[in-house]
Amino acid sequence: MGRRKRTGRPVNGVLLLDKPAGITSNKALQQVKNLFRAAKAGHTGSLDPLATGMLPICLGEATKISAFLLDADKRYRVRCRLGVTTNTGDADGDILQTRKCAHVSLRDAEKLKPRFSGTIAQIPPMYSAIKHQGQRLYVLAREGIEVERKPRNVQIHQLLFHSLDDCMLDLEVACSKGTYIRTLVEDIGEALGCGAHVIQLRRLSVGPFDGGMVTLDDLKEAASVDAGEGMASLDRYLLPIDSGIAHWPDIHLDPDTAFYVKQGQPVLVPHAPSEGWVRIYDRSRFLGVGEIQDDGKVAPRRMIRASV
Protein backbone atom coordinates (compact mmCIF):
# COMPACT_ATOMS: atom_id res chain seq x y z
CA MET A 1 0.00 0.00 0.00
CA GLY A 2 1.45 3.37 -0.99
CA ARG A 3 2.21 6.11 1.44
CA ARG A 4 -0.68 8.52 1.93
CA LYS A 5 0.04 11.87 0.32
CA ARG A 6 0.08 14.74 2.80
CA THR A 7 -2.53 17.37 2.04
CA GLY A 8 -2.45 21.00 3.00
CA ARG A 9 -0.35 24.08 2.48
CA PRO A 10 3.47 23.88 2.72
CA VAL A 11 3.69 26.64 5.32
CA ASN A 12 6.82 26.85 7.50
CA GLY A 13 7.49 28.72 10.74
CA VAL A 14 6.91 28.93 14.48
CA LEU A 15 3.72 30.27 16.05
CA LEU A 16 3.66 31.30 19.73
CA LEU A 17 0.12 30.35 20.67
CA ASP A 18 -1.46 31.65 23.88
CA LYS A 19 -3.33 28.43 24.68
CA PRO A 20 -6.70 29.04 26.35
CA ALA A 21 -7.86 27.10 29.39
CA GLY A 22 -10.24 24.20 28.96
CA ILE A 23 -8.77 22.48 25.90
CA THR A 24 -5.92 20.05 25.40
CA SER A 25 -2.69 21.08 23.71
CA ASN A 26 -3.46 18.69 20.86
CA LYS A 27 -6.87 20.25 20.25
CA ALA A 28 -5.25 23.70 20.18
CA LEU A 29 -2.67 22.37 17.72
CA GLN A 30 -5.34 20.96 15.43
CA GLN A 31 -7.24 24.26 15.42
CA VAL A 32 -4.07 26.14 14.44
CA LYS A 33 -3.20 23.58 11.77
CA ASN A 34 -6.69 23.87 10.27
CA LEU A 35 -6.67 27.69 10.32
CA PHE A 36 -3.32 27.77 8.50
CA ARG A 37 -4.38 24.86 6.26
CA ALA A 38 -0.95 23.49 7.07
CA ALA A 39 0.24 20.15 5.74
CA LYS A 40 2.30 19.46 8.86
CA ALA A 41 2.33 20.79 12.43
CA GLY A 42 3.46 19.82 15.90
CA HIS A 43 3.60 21.42 19.35
CA THR A 44 6.57 21.54 21.69
CA GLY A 45 5.49 20.23 25.05
CA SER A 46 1.95 19.80 26.33
CA LEU A 47 0.10 22.08 28.69
CA ASP A 48 -2.65 20.61 30.88
CA PRO A 49 -6.21 21.56 29.84
CA LEU A 50 -6.41 23.80 32.92
CA ALA A 51 -3.24 25.68 31.91
CA THR A 52 -2.90 28.71 29.65
CA GLY A 53 -0.01 30.45 27.98
CA MET A 54 2.84 29.78 25.65
CA LEU A 55 2.53 26.76 23.40
CA PRO A 56 5.02 27.04 20.54
CA ILE A 57 3.59 25.37 17.45
CA CYS A 58 5.96 24.37 14.66
CA LEU A 59 4.55 24.33 11.15
CA GLY A 60 6.08 22.48 8.21
CA GLU A 61 9.87 22.28 8.22
CA ALA A 62 9.95 23.96 11.65
CA THR A 63 8.89 20.61 13.15
CA LYS A 64 12.53 19.57 12.65
CA ILE A 65 13.60 21.90 15.46
CA SER A 66 10.66 21.10 17.77
CA ALA A 67 12.69 18.56 19.79
CA PHE A 68 15.12 21.30 20.80
CA LEU A 69 12.25 23.38 22.17
CA LEU A 70 11.00 20.36 24.12
CA ASP A 71 14.37 20.39 25.91
CA ALA A 72 14.23 24.13 26.64
CA ASP A 73 13.76 25.78 30.03
CA LYS A 74 10.31 27.14 30.90
CA ARG A 75 8.83 29.81 33.16
CA TYR A 76 5.40 29.63 34.79
CA ARG A 77 3.11 31.82 36.88
CA VAL A 78 1.11 29.68 39.31
CA ARG A 79 -1.78 30.19 41.72
CA CYS A 80 -2.30 27.40 44.20
CA ARG A 81 -4.88 26.70 46.88
CA LEU A 82 -3.39 25.76 50.23
CA GLY A 83 -5.22 23.39 52.56
CA VAL A 84 -6.73 21.16 49.85
CA THR A 85 -5.19 18.24 47.96
CA THR A 86 -6.70 16.58 44.88
CA ASN A 87 -6.02 13.31 43.08
CA THR A 88 -4.68 15.15 40.01
CA GLY A 89 -2.76 17.91 41.81
CA ASP A 90 -4.96 20.57 40.22
CA ALA A 91 -8.49 21.96 40.32
CA ASP A 92 -9.74 19.45 37.72
CA GLY A 93 -9.35 16.58 40.18
CA ASP A 94 -11.37 15.18 43.06
CA ILE A 95 -10.64 16.44 46.58
CA LEU A 96 -8.68 13.98 48.67
CA GLN A 97 -8.11 15.92 51.88
CA THR A 98 -8.71 19.34 53.47
CA ARG A 99 -6.54 20.83 56.22
CA LYS A 100 -6.26 24.14 58.03
CA CYS A 101 -4.08 26.71 56.28
CA ALA A 102 -5.00 30.11 57.77
CA HIS A 103 -1.90 30.01 59.97
CA VAL A 104 0.50 29.74 57.00
CA SER A 105 2.26 33.01 56.08
CA LEU A 106 4.20 34.19 53.04
CA ARG A 107 7.28 34.16 55.24
CA ASP A 108 6.74 30.44 55.90
CA ALA A 109 6.73 29.86 52.13
CA GLU A 110 9.83 32.01 51.63
CA LYS A 111 11.73 29.80 54.07
CA LEU A 112 11.25 26.90 51.67
CA LYS A 113 13.18 28.52 48.81
CA PRO A 114 16.49 26.75 49.49
CA ARG A 115 14.73 23.39 49.72
CA PHE A 116 12.98 23.81 46.36
CA SER A 117 15.75 25.52 44.39
CA GLY A 118 18.55 24.05 42.31
CA THR A 119 18.49 20.30 41.67
CA ILE A 120 15.48 18.64 43.28
CA ALA A 121 13.97 15.16 42.99
CA GLN A 122 10.37 14.77 41.86
CA ILE A 123 8.17 11.69 41.73
CA PRO A 124 6.14 12.07 38.51
CA PRO A 125 2.37 12.25 39.14
CA MET A 126 0.07 9.41 38.14
CA TYR A 127 -1.85 11.91 36.03
CA SER A 128 0.97 12.31 33.51
CA ALA A 129 1.81 11.07 30.01
CA ILE A 130 4.75 8.95 31.17
CA LYS A 131 4.44 5.33 30.06
CA HIS A 132 4.48 2.26 32.32
CA GLN A 133 4.75 -1.05 30.44
CA GLY A 134 3.44 0.66 27.32
CA GLN A 135 0.49 2.34 29.02
CA ARG A 136 0.18 6.05 29.81
CA LEU A 137 0.08 6.70 33.55
CA TYR A 138 -3.01 8.89 33.31
CA VAL A 139 -4.89 5.99 31.70
CA LEU A 140 -3.99 3.74 34.64
CA ALA A 141 -4.87 6.53 37.10
CA ARG A 142 -8.36 6.86 35.61
CA GLU A 143 -8.81 3.13 36.20
CA GLY A 144 -7.86 3.58 39.85
CA ILE A 145 -4.48 1.90 39.39
CA GLU A 146 -1.35 3.36 40.97
CA VAL A 147 2.14 2.13 40.10
CA GLU A 148 5.52 2.90 41.59
CA ARG A 149 7.36 5.80 39.91
CA LYS A 150 11.06 6.48 40.27
CA PRO A 151 12.14 9.98 41.35
CA ARG A 152 13.60 12.20 38.63
CA ASN A 153 15.98 15.09 39.09
CA VAL A 154 14.91 18.46 37.67
CA GLN A 155 16.33 21.97 37.93
CA ILE A 156 14.49 24.85 39.59
CA HIS A 157 16.41 27.90 38.36
CA GLN A 158 14.26 30.46 40.18
CA LEU A 159 11.38 30.28 42.65
CA LEU A 160 9.53 33.45 43.58
CA PHE A 161 6.69 33.64 46.11
CA HIS A 162 4.66 36.70 45.16
CA SER A 163 1.71 36.76 47.55
CA LEU A 164 -0.38 34.74 49.99
CA ASP A 165 -3.92 35.83 50.74
CA ASP A 166 -6.79 33.76 52.11
CA CYS A 167 -4.84 30.52 51.52
CA MET A 168 -4.20 31.45 47.87
CA LEU A 169 -0.46 31.37 47.14
CA ASP A 170 0.90 33.03 43.97
CA LEU A 171 4.35 32.01 42.79
CA GLU A 172 6.60 32.03 39.75
CA VAL A 173 8.89 29.21 38.64
CA ALA A 174 11.72 29.05 36.12
CA CYS A 175 12.66 25.41 35.58
CA SER A 176 14.18 22.76 33.35
CA LYS A 177 12.33 20.42 31.02
CA GLY A 178 10.46 17.61 32.73
CA THR A 179 9.47 19.65 35.79
CA TYR A 180 5.95 18.94 37.00
CA ILE A 181 4.53 22.14 38.45
CA ARG A 182 1.61 20.24 40.04
CA THR A 183 4.11 18.03 41.88
CA LEU A 184 6.17 21.05 42.95
CA VAL A 185 3.05 22.71 44.37
CA GLU A 186 1.99 19.50 46.14
CA ASP A 187 5.46 19.14 47.67
CA ILE A 188 5.47 22.78 48.81
CA GLY A 189 2.04 22.26 50.33
CA GLU A 190 3.23 19.23 52.26
CA ALA A 191 6.31 21.12 53.46
CA LEU A 192 3.95 23.81 54.77
CA GLY A 193 1.95 21.11 56.57
CA CYS A 194 -1.37 21.84 54.87
CA GLY A 195 -1.23 20.42 51.34
CA ALA A 196 -1.94 22.34 48.13
CA HIS A 197 -3.09 22.05 44.55
CA VAL A 198 -2.85 24.17 41.38
CA ILE A 199 -5.89 26.27 40.48
CA GLN A 200 -4.29 28.45 37.78
CA LEU A 201 -1.19 27.80 35.68
CA ARG A 202 0.20 30.04 32.96
CA ARG A 203 3.35 29.36 30.95
CA LEU A 204 5.17 32.63 30.35
CA SER A 205 8.16 31.53 28.31
CA VAL A 206 9.78 28.60 26.51
CA GLY A 207 13.52 28.75 25.81
CA PRO A 208 14.29 31.99 23.95
CA PHE A 209 10.58 32.79 23.46
CA ASP A 210 9.29 35.30 26.01
CA GLY A 211 6.13 37.21 25.09
CA GLY A 212 4.62 37.91 21.67
CA MET A 213 1.90 35.27 21.99
CA VAL A 214 -1.12 35.06 19.70
CA THR A 215 -4.59 33.89 20.75
CA LEU A 216 -6.89 31.58 18.83
CA ASP A 217 -9.31 34.50 18.50
CA ASP A 218 -6.54 36.57 16.87
CA LEU A 219 -5.94 33.76 14.39
CA LYS A 220 -9.63 33.26 13.63
CA GLU A 221 -10.01 36.98 12.94
CA ALA A 222 -6.98 36.93 10.62
CA ALA A 223 -8.35 33.86 8.86
CA SER A 224 -11.65 35.66 8.23
CA VAL A 225 -9.73 38.58 6.71
CA ASP A 226 -7.75 36.16 4.55
CA ALA A 227 -10.82 34.37 3.22
CA GLY A 228 -10.37 34.14 -0.52
CA GLU A 229 -7.28 36.40 -0.49
CA GLY A 230 -4.38 34.12 0.38
CA MET A 231 -3.02 33.70 3.90
CA ALA A 232 -0.93 36.85 4.44
CA SER A 233 -2.80 38.02 7.57
CA LEU A 234 -2.19 34.67 9.25
CA ASP A 235 1.34 34.15 8.02
CA ARG A 236 2.51 37.45 9.51
CA TYR A 237 2.23 35.80 12.95
CA LEU A 238 4.86 33.20 12.04
CA LEU A 239 8.42 33.45 13.31
CA PRO A 240 11.39 32.12 11.28
CA ILE A 241 12.24 28.43 11.64
CA ASP A 242 15.56 29.23 13.33
CA SER A 243 14.03 31.60 15.92
CA GLY A 244 13.74 28.81 18.50
CA ILE A 245 17.49 28.19 18.45
CA ALA A 246 18.61 31.79 17.93
CA HIS A 247 20.78 31.56 21.07
CA TRP A 248 22.96 28.84 19.48
CA PRO A 249 26.25 29.72 17.76
CA ASP A 250 25.99 30.06 13.99
CA ILE A 251 28.26 29.17 11.09
CA HIS A 252 28.03 30.59 7.55
CA LEU A 253 29.29 28.44 4.70
CA ASP A 254 30.61 29.29 1.26
CA PRO A 255 28.72 27.69 -1.67
CA ASP A 256 31.19 24.81 -2.10
CA THR A 257 31.11 23.79 1.57
CA ALA A 258 27.33 24.24 1.70
CA PHE A 259 27.02 21.81 -1.21
CA TYR A 260 28.65 18.99 0.78
CA VAL A 261 26.59 19.74 3.90
CA LYS A 262 23.40 19.49 1.84
CA GLN A 263 24.56 16.01 0.76
CA GLY A 264 24.75 15.05 4.44
CA GLN A 265 28.55 15.13 4.65
CA PRO A 266 30.46 16.53 7.67
CA VAL A 267 32.68 19.49 6.80
CA LEU A 268 35.54 21.34 8.44
CA VAL A 269 34.65 24.97 9.09
CA PRO A 270 37.31 27.47 10.20
CA HIS A 271 36.62 29.13 13.57
CA ALA A 272 33.65 26.85 14.30
CA PRO A 273 32.90 26.06 17.98
CA SER A 274 34.79 23.09 19.41
CA GLU A 275 31.67 21.24 20.59
CA GLY A 276 27.88 21.27 20.77
CA TRP A 277 25.14 22.26 18.36
CA VAL A 278 25.26 25.02 15.74
CA ARG A 279 22.96 26.76 13.28
CA ILE A 280 24.12 26.28 9.68
CA TYR A 281 23.64 28.94 6.98
CA ASP A 282 24.42 29.10 3.28
CA ARG A 283 25.58 32.71 3.51
CA SER A 284 22.34 34.08 5.05
CA ARG A 285 19.85 31.29 4.26
CA PHE A 286 19.15 28.88 7.12
CA LEU A 287 20.03 25.30 6.13
CA GLY A 288 19.46 23.46 9.40
CA VAL A 289 21.31 22.37 12.53
CA GLY A 290 24.56 20.55 12.94
CA GLU A 291 26.68 19.03 15.66
CA ILE A 292 30.43 19.34 16.17
CA GLN A 293 32.08 15.91 15.96
CA ASP A 294 35.13 14.75 17.91
CA ASP A 295 37.31 15.44 14.85
CA GLY A 296 36.12 19.07 14.79
CA LYS A 297 33.96 18.71 11.70
CA VAL A 298 30.39 20.01 11.54
CA ALA A 299 27.99 17.14 10.93
CA PRO A 300 24.53 18.04 9.54
CA ARG A 301 21.76 16.65 11.75
CA ARG A 302 18.40 18.31 10.93
CA MET A 303 18.40 19.92 7.51
CA ILE A 304 15.68 22.14 6.10
CA ARG A 305 14.35 21.44 2.62
CA ALA A 306 15.97 23.58 -0.06
CA SER A 307 12.59 24.96 -1.18
CA VAL A 308 12.05 26.77 2.13
What is the count of DSSP helices, taking H or I runs of 4+ residues?
8
CATH class of the largest domain: Alpha Beta
Q: CATH H-level name of the largest domain... which superfamily?
A: Pseudouridine synthase
Please report the distance between the alpha carbons of the first and last residues. Answer: 29 Å
Helix content estimate: 10-25%
Number of domains: 3
Quick overview:
This protein has helices spanning 25-36, 66-70, 106-110, 137-142, 181-191, 216-226, 232-235, 255-262, and strands spanning 13-19, 41-43, 52-59, 74-82, 84-86, 95-98, 118-122, 131-132, 135-136, 152-165, 168-175, 196-206, 209-210, 250-253, 277-282, 285-292, 298-303.
List the helices and strands and how they pair.
Elements (H helix, E strand, L loop, with lengths): L12 E7 L5 H12 L4 E3 L8 E8 L6 H5 L3 E9 L1 E3 L8 E4 L7 H5 L7 E5 L8 E2 L2 E2 H6 L9 E14 L2 E8 L5 H11 L4 E11 L2 E2 L5 H11 L5 H4 L14 E4 L1 H8 L14 E6 L2 E8 L5 E6 L5
Parallel strand pairs: 3-12, 14-15
Antiparallel strand pairs: 1-3, 2-3, 4-11, 4-12, 5-6, 7-10, 8-9, 10-11, 12-13, 15-16, 16-17
Helix pairs in contact: 1-6
